[in-house]
Design goal:
By secondary structure, this protein is of the alpha/beta class. It has helices at residues 52-60, 82-91, 109-119, 127-140, 145-148, 158-172, 188-205, 216-222, 240-245, 250-257, and strands spanning 8-19, 26-37, 41-46, 67-72, 75-76, 92-95, 176-180, 208-213, 225-230, 233-239. Helices cover 38% and strands 24% of the residues. Helix 3 (109-119) packs parallel to helix 6, helix 4 (127-140) packs across helix 6 and helix 6 packs parallel to helix 7 (188-205). It is globular, with a radius of gyration of 19 Å. The structure holds adenosine-5'-triphosphate and magnesium ion.
Amino acid sequence: MSSSEKKSCLRGVGVTKVFGIGNKAFTAVDHVDFDFKEGEIVSIVGESGSGKTTISKMILGLISVTEGEIYYHDELRDISTGAKRKEYWRNIQAIFQDPFASYNMFYKIDAVLDDCLKMRGEGNLSPQEKFDRMTEACSFVNLKFAELTNKYPFELSGGQMQRLMIARIFLLRPKILLADEPTSMVDACSRATILDYLLKLRDEENMTVVFVTHDIGLAYYVSDKIYIMEHGKFVESGTAEDCILRPQAEYTKRLISDVPKIHEEWDLSTV
Ligand SMILES: Nc1ncnc2c1ncn2[C@@H]1O[C@H](COP(=O)(O)OP(=O)(O)OP(=O)(O)O)[C@@H](O)[C@H]1O
Ligand SMILES: [Mg+2]
């Protein structure tokens, strides 16, 4: 299916964030337009400080939008009340750089996963059904639920913790998954594995996956569509091929020239 035939999942028009007021005002995100389709893998690429996390937070509804509109499934997003925010958050989930930040450290792992079922409105499944769902989620990321049940998140290795994060997403089944540098903490091998799990979630659940990264090589490897961000603006956007193989903006060309291997066949062992 071509991109124009796919349904819009999340769309932004003139989305802007200004921090501070008066002569201290700073525009971190400056009138950006975007359209993420259902089941699409999108990357937002830019250098440190370009506004990637700020735009992610607006998309997640964690900070207010100074100007502009965000549409969810072609309807103006309304998160003006607690109940509406909760409903929105059922459809959008994030994984962050630091997996520790994603867990309540005082919850054992079965409680962490049980919480996900509750959030999906599946809190009153029978104990056996819950066990089956959690086991399935863990095996999706190659973890053994039986070996984890009595542990706390901090008793896991970094890689296991990252995979548990994806098991949570598997149970939550959001429509949109936003991943802000999801692989920066892990070694090269688990990094490729985690990316593959995220791609699998897209393939099996038709999830829209939004990667936020400074790594244009990674973006090229995983994305259908790329947005290049510089000083709060999208300076270029398009298919991964168009952006990387036929870049127009000087900034994109510079980002690409920093990655010598980008035109060669992508070798997973270096991801
Ligand atoms: N709460 C805030 N108050 C004031 N300025 C902020 C705030 N949050 C972010 N900024 C500024 O907005 C700009 C963009 O920050 P942001 O965190 O979005 O960058 P980023 O692209 O995610 O960078 P990185 O790749 O380092 O994570 C930065 O100049 C930052 O200092
Ligand atoms: Mg950031």
